[in-house]
Design a protein that fits this description.
By secondary structure, this protein is mainly alpha-helical. The chain contains 3 helices and 2 strands, in the order H-H-H-E-E.
Length: 121
């Protein structure tokens, strides 16, 4: 396969994986984030193949190809930041829910287990 064709096909596959990732994206669904990460990994693999095809390809048209790769990388980086933000939100939410559960357990209506220096169990 010619490097230019390999480059074009890898770029097209990378873009398709990014489109799939965007379609799967749902900030409120952690499982969707995992699927999006899988699509991003695949897109990254294709970008690496495209880069190798780019390096092996002819010198003509490199400026346009470089710009095209930069756009794809930018889209992938933006989606990666969205996923990271969503996962951070879910981690914070989980911590908050655990903290709320601990507060519920320690409400004044719940009997104290320790009183002074003696155990009341």
């Amino acid at each position: 396969m010619r490097p230019a064709v390999d480059f074009s096909e890898s770029v097209a596959r990378s873009q398709a994986y990014l489109r799939d990732a965007l379609e799967q994206w749902d900030a409120s669904d952690l499982q969707a984030s995992e699927r999006v990460c899988d699509f991003l990994r695949r897109a990254s693999d294709e970008l690496e193949r495209a880069r190798r095809g780019f390096d092996a390809g002819p010198r003509a048209g490199r400026a346009k190809a470089t710009l095209h790769l930069a756009w794809i990388r930018s889209d992938a980086a933006r989606l990666t930041r969205l996923i990271e933000a969503s996962q951070a939100f879910h981690r914070g939410l989980a911590l908050r829910m655990c903290a709320d559960s601990a507060e519920d357990f320690q409400q004044p209506s719940a009997p104290a287990i320790w009183g002074g220096s003696e155990c009341r169990i």
